[in-house]
Amino acid sequence: GNSVTQMEGPVTLSEEAFLTINCTYTATGYPSLFWYVQYPGEGLQLLLKATKADDKGSNKGFEATYRKETTSFHLEKGSVQVSDSAVYFCALQRQGAQKLVFGQGTRLTINP
Amino acid sequence: GAGVSQSPRYKVAKRGQDVALRCDPISGHVSLFWYQQALGQGPEFLTYFQNEAQLDKSGLPSDRFFAERPEGSVSTLKIQRTQQEDSAVYLCASSRLGEKLFFGSGTQLSVL
Q1: How far apart are CA A29 and CA A54, in angstroms?
Q2: B93 in helix, strand or coil?
Q3: How does pLDDT run across B36-58, given as a tens digit for each residue?
Q4: Rounded Cα gap, residues A9 and B88, in angstroms
Q5: Residue A1: pLDDT band by 50, 70, 90 thresholds?
Q6: CA-to-CA separations, B38 to B41, B89, B107, in angstroms, rounded
Q7: Dist. CA B31–CA B50, nearest whole Å
Q8: Given A56, A87, B66, B94, which residue has the most CB atoms within 10 angstroms?
Q9: What's the DSSP call for residue B86?
Q10: Which residues contact A74 (CB under 8 A, 6 or more apart)?
Q11: pLDDT of residue B1
Q12: Which of B45, B54, B60, B91 is best to mutate for the A interface (most A CBs within 10 A)?
């Protein structure tokens, strides 16, 4: 079946550190891949997405590249800020389907 | 309204009670989803509506769970004879067909 596995959290970093949150997936065909973010007290928001192999999604300084050969979609940011503290979810959407399949989430805390 | 609105924000129920959770999607959004998010986990798909038609209810965990969207706008998720394992945050999301999902802040259900 379709599934998403994320790096175990929580992750704690200092401001301006480099961030990587790992995400791998299992799916048939060519799913679309997403990163969602949940800031404290707010609803889930789409951060970025990629719809085909080798596509790079980017937003707010975050990037993730769709790697078909390693079935991965790791999230990266070169220099994190305190305001990036949130829970990050990797998700996939099977081709032709409407629903999203989410990973378990990774809580990120950035200290000043 | 400007976003997806869910009510109530918090609900405490005694085991065995019935509950009804409401979702007001963004005006004009055809697609509406319900997800269940257990503590420390990612959202799990429950059901999907396109206008008033419930096209996918494969994620509903038991026949105690029922969802409706009679006029293709507001949706209600009903849980009958609540059990402790139903305790979770219930998320609603809406979108134009095939476009970006917008999530509500959720209803946190606690079953005592």
Answers
A1: 15
A2: strand
A3: 999 999 999 999 999 999 999 99
A4: 20
A5: confident
A6: 5, 6, 12
A7: 5
A8: B94
A9: G
A10: A20, A21, A22, A23, A64, A65
A11: 53
A12: B45
Looking at every residue in chain B, the average pLDDT score rounds to 96
How far off is chain A from B103, nearest CA to CA, in Å? 6
- For residue A45, which residues of chain B lie inside 8 Å, CB to CB? 103
Residue B41 Cα, gap to closest chain A Cα (Å): 5
User: Which residue of A38, A44, A107 is the best one to mutate when testing the B interface, meaning the one whose CB has the most B CBs within 10 A?
Assistant: A44
The backbone region for B86, taken as left when phi is positive above 0, alpha when psi lies in -120 to 50, beta otherwise, is: alpha
CA distance A60 to B60: 35
> By the 8 A CB rule, do B94 and B34 touch?
no
β pairing state of B65-68 and B75-79? antiparallel
A98–B55 CB contact, under 8 Å: yes
| pLDDT surpasses 90 at B98 | no
Enclosing H/E stretch for A95? none
